[in-house]
Design a protein that fits this description.
Helix content: 55-70%
Structural class: mainly alpha
Largest sheet: none
Protein name: Histone-lysine N-methyltransferase SETMAR
Distance between the termini: 22 Å
Oligomer: single chain
GO molecular function: nucleic acid binding
Length: 78
């Protein structure tokens, strides 16, 4: 840790989790959950293909909104 501090990086102490913020309700997972409703996922390959399809069909704005929400969530935890 001393070497990291010498290089200009600061170690910020924070709780390992925030009990009021669940990672499962993050922007990405909510959208994926809705996309997966009614889809056949009998194999890992099915699941992987659906996930890739979902990612490739998200517009740029989806990812921008998700990043903004992530920053807001980070601020809530501190």
């Amino acid at each position: 840790m001393d070497k990291i501090a010498q290089l200009g990086n600061v170690h910020m102490l924070h709780p390992p989790y925030s009990p009021n913020i669940s990672p499962c309700d993050y922007h990405y997972f909510l959208g994926l959950r809705d996309f997966m409703v009614g889809r056949n996922t009998r194999t890992q390959a099915d699941l992987d293909n659906h996930n890739k399809q979902w990612i490739s069909t998200r517009p740029k704005q989806f990812w921008k909104v998700g990043i903004r929400k992530l920053a807001d969530r980070w601020q809530q935890g501190h």
